[in-house]
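Researcher: Here's my situation. A collaborator sent me these components and asked whether they could plausibly form a single complex. I don't have experimental data yet, so a predicted model of the whole assembly would be a useful starting point for our discussion.
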Amino acid sequence: MKQAVTFESRHSAPFGRVSRCRRTSLALALACVFSAWFLTWAAGPALAAPKSKEITSVDSIRRFMEKGQALFVAGQYVKSAEIFEAGYELHPYSAFLFNAGVAFEKADRLEEALVRFKKYVEVDAHAPDHDEVQKRIVKLEEAIAERAAAEKAGKKVKPAAVSQEESATKSLVVIETEPPGATVHFYLQVAGDAPYQADGENANFKLIQTATAPVNASLDVGRYHVAVDKFGDFNPSESDLEVLSGRVHQLKLNLSQGAFMAYVRVSVTPKNAQVYLDDPKREKPPWGETVPHGELVQTGQHTLLIAAPGYVPVTRTLELTHGQKEDIAVTLERVQFGTLRIDSNAPQINVTVDGRVAGTWTKGKPALLVENLSTGPHQVYVSAPGRKPLSGTLTVPKGQVQSVRANMVVTPPRGAAWTQAIIGGVLLGGGIYFGLESNRLYDELNNDHNAGILVRDDSRGTKGKVYSVGADIAFLGTAVLGGLSTYNFLKDPLPPSTFEIGKVREFEALPKANDEGAKP
Amino acid sequence: MSVTNRLVPLCALVALSLGCSWARFDDVTDNPPVERLKAPSSTSSLGLSLAAHTGAMGSSLVAAASDRIVLYDLGSGTTPSTTATASQSCVGDNSCVLARGLASLKSPALTNDIGCVAYGMGMLTESSGTVSGKLWLFCDGAERRSLDLPASMQTWLSNRALTNETALYLGAPHSISALVAAAPEASLAWFYPSSSPFAFELPSLPDGKKPGRAVAVIPHDTGYAVLVSSMTTDELWLYAVDSTPSATLTGCIQGPAQFGRLLSTGNFDGDGIDDLLVADGTTVYAIAGSSLVTFSASSITECTSVASLQLLATASCANLKDVIGCNSQPFASAITSANLDGTGTDELVIGVAEAVVRGESAAGAVLAYTLENGTFVVKEGLFVSSAAGGDRLGTSVAAVPAGNLERIAAGAPGDNSVMEFFCNSLVPAESKVARCP
């Protein structure tokens, strides 16, 4: 019985490198662990070197390749070429020779480039690009001849034009198997984005090289599929590989015999979910920290806990049999609460949410977190000494943190208004007094007039006039100051305090296991 | 509408309702019922005495100050000149001493029918060097005139240095056609009948009694009844002057303390003969003039009690709403008669200089009485709205002719002013002027 188990594994790596491994196994033959343990920068034996030569000094190889590539990218082609050559001297891999040739060509030192390319085809006669490099050699020889002729004719020599395709450096790919001796095939993806299908036609992939592991290949930039043939008791294995410029890729294939296992792959939305296998209390590191995540697992009953910050965790129970492949796709639902993260431009603010005191935030301290708020709108009131109070409705997202900055605008000073109001009040009081006194004196004079005893120059007449004028002036002053005071009380040249809605952030951590309320 | 816009009209409304316009004070004071006649500069104690008469330009009022007399042309309307038209100095030396009371005088023989006021006496040095004693008149047109003093007075004056202490009392009938004068220090009284510019001496009082303090004249068909009070006793001596003219002492009238301290005349009973007003310390008596004209005592040395005479009425002090007149001692400081209501009879006007007005001591007031059923009834208490303590309004009173009635003028030497009252409750409605309510 032949059972296909497909799984994917993604590892973060420098330069965003991605490898994809695909394995086909016979259920009763072997368990093949095709683990892309890591893709790293490693040195391996030169392609021209004896295949038995052990891969050593990985760090040294990596440093030469990295440094040369960095200089190359920086446009320091001669220095780059020198570094690649120095690397070749210590670690005789043909990729160094090719890259040195490219660097010399970019530096317009065609003769030196020609020497490196010729040596490359000499030491790596089975290179997949052997024919292309031969053509490049011819082209270089022609260019050198033309240049010599031009120089002889006294013409100005133009720098050699190097196409972008020709400017690409090679990378070193090291494939190791445990045990060694397996046959390895390199397929280059020449068209489309469709992945390699183990049982399909794969017209968009071209076989470029076959070798016996351990194998060291100098490969151009591109997407490859690496296939390992059936070897002894071991099932065949395969993997996708994306080769980047000027890198060292190392791939180890562990072909080991053992018990029959099942394969579980978990795809979760969101991507930052963590998967815990048989660890409901999350006491151990996650079984898978990035998703999709797949691994061979022992047969039997297992419990998967899938959790992500801001989401309702999900628990799944699995019953696995030998060789069973289980694809689990889970879309987590957001929790029905969220957090408001509030800070301000004011030195200190007091925050009330839905009429309840939420806390005080002081400048220099972390933003105030108002947690466990039900999703949806909430009435938020913010006050600060000397600032205009702020009130508004903020919407709390599901399972996320809504950042809010309270831009508290300074309350305009009301000193002038108060002064005017007080003076106006005093004037009003004075006006009323003067007015009443004026009226009293007028009544007295009028009564005396009616009694026939009023004399023209009665001093109360003058006094009454003064009081009347005083009252009128006081009332006028009251009106003016009252108006000014009112205006100054109402005048507000500054804008109101506002909420500045910031980005919505994800929860940074999972809640404690006891609080998460996992649901099946 | 904003709050500010609402406040502005509100404040304006408040201002209008409470502060209002100051012009209303002008409205009420521009045409007051009382005019203050202002004293010229360098004049003090204006209003010590008053005399009024009708001249060519209407009513004239002469007020005595401490060392001069001041003439005011009150005109015939209701807008008198409140500033003095002219003044005549009388500084209290030999050239002039002021009389204790002024007396209006107007007759063809005495003043060429020009309205004058007799105000004092003194020695006149003619351009020829002749020195003679004169009774000074201040006449319309600010003309100073004089009447000769009788021979005995001339002699007395020639031997005297006149001072302000030298007393001269003058009296004229209500018709101002004759004049009686008395100089107590000289123990002389003399009389100017309307028909002659020459004075003749009145017989001396018996027992060396000095004439003076107050004098009065009651004209009648055949002559005059001249009344001279005694300076030292509470007696009033009565002379009968005929058309000769000659004077006969016909008797005396005796009354309570200070009886005869003030004299005046007026027509209260409507019989055509002026009646006599006599004041003592507390009471003003109105004695029928007809009884005095025919008065003939059985004995010159024995005075008749005032109570036994034909008294028309007596007036005593009164306390009114704003005037406390009964604290004064003596009660009356000046008396006169005035036809305030335009009827044929006069009303009694008493100046009470010591009256307390609105709490102001000695602010002074003028009380007006009408004779009703044999009793003087106080009808009016006049004072000024600006009354102040010590004004002593009512130190002098005078009746100012104003058409068919008379107005009251009162001196307030403490205020150095004279007040003309245009209104009182006795003025009939048809005679009220715009100044009156």
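Model: Some features of this prediction you could bring to your collaborator: The interface with chain A takes residues 2-4, 7-8, 11-12, 14-15, 17-22, 24-26, 28-30, 32-36, 82, 382-386, 419, 421-425, 436-437 of chain B (CB under 8 Å). Helices of chain B lie at 3-19, 23-29, 108-111, 151-158, 289-293.
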